[in-house]
Automatic annotation (TrEMBL):
InterPro entries: 6-PGluconate_DH-like_C_sf, NAD(P)-bd_dom_sf, PDH_N, Prephen_DH, TYRAAT1/2, TYRAAT2_C. Residues 12-267 form the Prephenate/arogenate dehydrogenase domain. It comes from Rubroshorea leprosula. It holds the Pfam family PDH_N. The lineage of its organism: Eukaryota, Viridiplantae, Streptophyta, Embryophyta, Tracheophyta. One of its GO terms (biological process) is tyrosine biosynthetic process. The keyword Coiled coil applies. One of its GO terms (molecular function) is arogenate dehydrogenase (NADP+) activity. This is Prephenate/arogenate dehydrogenase domain-containing protein. Keywords: Coiled coil, Oxidoreductase. The keyword Nucleus does not apply. Residues 236-267 form a coiled coil.
């Protein structure tokens, strides 16, 4: 094995902050790859951690003193600041790579740069998949990242290799560009799905393929929490404009239909 490949596949000591469904989903693959995993969370997940071979820490101080190479932030968007501000960061004994996996990027980047000690490294990422879409593997699924403040390239490259080795499509992109693109794609997808859910759309005996796609979208989006949806709106500065664009587009379509109806009635 070459020196470069050896470095890229280095086993890491990874601590996860926030061990909900997404944190557990990522941890399973990291454990499979041989990384030493630790976790802390406001909820006691010691049983699931014991089952997975992960050390669970009730005490955040002990967690931070566990000599982690990487601290992976898997909180919700809305709870990020509260959770991190409760961590006793003075317990960190050395430079650590902080990595977030939130679905927005400018907000965690700005918060981490402001909140963390300057000697800590920061990598902002967004795996564009989850427990449902990544259930059968991560091959060809997009993984977006920006090296925001990275001085230990070995640790950073080793972490990115976790996703490269699973076949992810690695997309290096600025946090600003990510949020701009995501507002136009992910956020709009969630809006359409939420609207269908609010309308309580039902499957019918004569579904078209297009309707099946929309119906499946509404069910998929409904599986995500409203906190995630609201976080995509509140903490992505481009989302409000996309919501307004959608409202304007719907009004234009409505006006065209009414105009056509009037034409037909006046024939």
């Amino acid at each position: 094995m070459s020196a470069s490949s050896s470095l890229s596949s280095q086993c890491l000591k990874i601590g996860i902050v926030g061990f909900g469904s997404f944190g557990q989903f990522l941890a399973k693959t990291m454990v499979k790859q041989g990384h030493a995993m630790r976790a802390t969370s406001r909820t006691d997940h010691s049983k699931i951690c014991n089952h997975l071979g992960i050390s669970f820490f009730i005490d955040a101080r002990a967690f931070l003193e566990a000599d982690n190479d990487v601290i992976l932030i898997c909180t919700s968007i809305l709870s990020l600041s509260g959770v991190l501000q409760a961590l006793p960061l003075e317990c960190l004994k050395r430079r650590t790579l902080f990595v977030d996996v939130l679905s927005v990027k400018e907000y965690p980047r700005n918060f981490l740069l402001q909140f963390l000690p300057e000697e800590m490294d920061v990598l902002c990422t967004h795996p564009m998949f989850g427990p449902d879409s990544g259930r059968d593997g991560w091959k060809d699924l997009a993984f977006v990242y920006e090296r925001v403040r990275v001085r230990d390239e070995i640790i950073c490259s080793s972490f990115l290799h976790i996703f490269q080795s699973e076949g992810c499509r690695m997309v290096e992109m600025s946090c600003e560009e990510h949020d701009k693109v995501a507002a136009n794609s992910q956020f709009l997808t969630h809006i359409i799905g939420r609207v269908f859910s609010e309308m309580d759309i039902k499957s019918t005996p004569i579904n078209t393929k297009s309707f099946e796609t929309l119906f499946q979208l509404s069910e998929t989006v409904a599986n995500n929490s409203f906190d995630l949806f609201s976080g995509l709106f509140i903490h992505n500065r481009f989302a409000k404009q996309e919501l307004e664009n959608l409202e304007h587009a719907l009004e234009k379509v409505k006006q065209k239909l009414l105009e056509k109806m009037n034409e037909e009635q006046n024939l």
